[in-house]
Amino acid sequence: MLLYVSSLSWHSVPDCMEIEHSNKSCHSARALPLGWSTSGRKHETDHYIERATPVKHTAKITLGMLALLTVGAARAQAQNTCAANPCSLNDTVKVTVTTVLRLSLSQSATALTPPNEAAYDAGFQLDNGPVATVKANRGWTLKVSANAATWTAAGGANASKAAGDLLWATSSGGTYTSLTTSPVTFGSAATGNAGTAQPAFYKTLWSYTNDTPGDYSLVVVYTLSAP
Predict the structure, then answer these.
(1) Which residues make beta-bridge pairs with 189?
(2) Please, are residues 135 and 194 in contact by the beta-carbon 8 Å criterion?
(3) How much is the CA Rg of the chain, to the nearest whole Å?
(4) Which pTM does this prediction carry?
(5) How many CA atoms lie within 13 A of 196 on its CB side?
(6) Among 64, 82, 130, 227, which residue's CB has the most CB atoms within a 10 Å radius?
(7) What span, in angstroms and rounded, lies between the C-alpha atoms of 78 and 84?
(8) Domains (ranges, CATH) in the chain?
(9) DSSP category for residue 133
(10) Residues 6+ apart with CB under 8 A from 124
(11) Which of 117, 138, 102, 90 lies closest to 206, judged by CA?
């Protein structure tokens, strides 16, 4: 005797099946779905389909439960646990620190003192420049330079007045250095700091022969960098 597996139960199929002719014949035993005869005709088709459908729903529910169990197991593996007495666990903290650099100037333009007779006689005029403040979490270098080789002239001023006619220093009584288009060190620090202020002092050279009346301007560039 063979057994046929339906969606809900098992049904036995006899070895000999009766066909529609008057005589009876015995066929080799084989599994047949519920509602089918050996003559090939189907009976109660709808009933068979309805009984088979629950298998699909059961499979979907089972797969869903397996997925939930898999996610739960993964989360459980990610947890750091122990059950000893005493119980000690480690927590490793990590962070990536980036470079912090900030440069501030107390002013974006400096109004130089117009040279008078005394300045022309002395050949120079002294003025206070901006205060440069540096914040950094590492060593730094602040450099100064002129953005052009000559001053910008207007209104009859000397168009060939050299950038080097403006000198700078880090103290009023210090050594003054002529500006060039090549950056030179204005200040530096080997370590970081919360705010280092460095004032600039300017000395402008004036000549009766070369510096005619007019408007003069020059851009001074301060550049902060970290090694």
Answers:
(1) 140
(2) yes
(3) 48
(4) 0.65
(5) 20
(6) 130
(7) 19
(8) 2-78 (no CATH), 101-225 (2.60.40)
(9) E
(10) 203, 204, 205, 206
(11) 117
| pLDDT of res. 158 | 98
Q: Which residues contact 193 (CB under 8 A, 6 or more apart)?
A: 134, 135, 136
What's the chain's average pLDDT? 80
Q: What separation, in Å, do the N-terminal and C-terminal C-alpha atoms of the chain show?
A: 90
Beta-carbon contacts of 73 under 8 Å, excluding residues fewer than 6 positions away, are: none
Eight-class DSSP state of 34: T
Distance CA 99, CA 79 (A): 34
How far apart, in whole angstroms, are the C-alpha atoms of residue 115 and residue 106?
24
CA–CA dist 126, 203 (Å, integer): 5
How many residues are recorded in the chain?
A: 227
* CA–CA gap between residue 48 and residue 50 (Å, rounded): 5
For 18-72, how does the pLDDT look when each residue is reduced to its tens digit (9 = 90+)? 434 444 444 444 444 444 444 444 444 444 444 445 545 555 555 666 666 555 5
Query: Is the Cβ–Cβ distance between 62 and 69 less than 8 Å?
Result: no
Nearest-5° angle of CA 54, CA 55, CA 60?
A: 100
pLDDT at 79: 82
